[in-house]
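Bug #77: duplicate submission created two jobs. Keeping one. Sequence:
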Amino acid sequence: MLKKLTFSSRLTFVLKSLLISYLLTAGLLLLLALFLYKFSLTEKIVSLCITGIYILVTFLAGFLAGKREGSRKFLWGLMMGCLYFIILTLVSLIVNHGMGELSSGFFTTLVLCAASGMLGGMLS
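Kept job's structure:
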């Protein structure tokens, strides 16, 4: 069942999905901060949890995009994962006042966001 969607309705949906993704990310990171405070988690565990949050959120964004579009779901999921990563990178650049040195996990995070978004789209 393919739906005819206009460009503006697709753009609105993508922006809403990204906003929901970032609100969910903020909530999960606040919960992680609470756990860090209460249980004195190690840096390795916190890093794994942050990566897991990125994977979960981009998976859900890709899943929602694939559900809505109905065709080429994996591309819509891939797009959501990549857009999530691009915005994440831009905010990081603004906060850090430039490139500085690229983190060793920069490209890994890109691949994880893109792949989990695509997987979410494929499984929708």
